[in-house]
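Q: What changes when iron/sulfur cluster is included in the input?
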Amino acid sequence: MLFSYELLGKLFVFFVFAVLIVTGVALLLGAYSIRRHRIIFPNFILFMLYLFYSPSKWMCRVFSIKEEIVDEILIEVRNAVMLDKFKKKADRRAVILPQCMRHPQCRARCDPIMGYECTECGMCDIKDIVRAADKHNFKVFIVPGDSFVRKIIKSYNPNVCLGVACYVELTESMQSVSKFMPVQGVSLIRDGCFDTRVDVVEVIHKMEICDV
Ligand code: SF4
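A: The predicted holo structure follows.
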């Protein structure tokens, strides 16, 4: 019996080491792919880093690497994998923005299903995104939380989705929404829960590529 426990212990340690090594390989491949703008083994990277998301972040902390690199890899690899399908869908395109991008004095009304209704007052960058969205046949949703994303998918039924959020939320949302439609994501350049910012040019560029 003692022998069995010892064997189990050894197997467990072996398993942990194997997971850490394979996760480390996925991280290295992901970082290399982003740096070289050439994605290598995307499905392996996505599978490993989603499955071992917390251990990946722990490994980054151990090696004093910013842990957001894990989210950055997952977002960029997912973007690369889904880009072609995203470009091809022409109707019912959605852009989903977080409500924290609104100006602190925004007076937009919140619809219980569709989220905030921007009046294009111009106090924040959302106005520019809304105008570009009109031009490129996207509908903008400004959502107070994840539950609204589910409502929008159900009620508007988009066939492509462009999401903006902080690293962690974007990683999670892209994973769940990509089961239903092609997605693209742009992470916030200033996060937090208040007065956040995104690179508007990048968001508009993602809409423009759909016109190709
Ligand atoms: S542009 Fe739209 S979202 Fe931004 S503050 Fe004005 S109404 Fe609110």
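Observations recorded in class: The beta strands are 93-98, 109-111, 115-117, 138-143, 160-165, 183-187.
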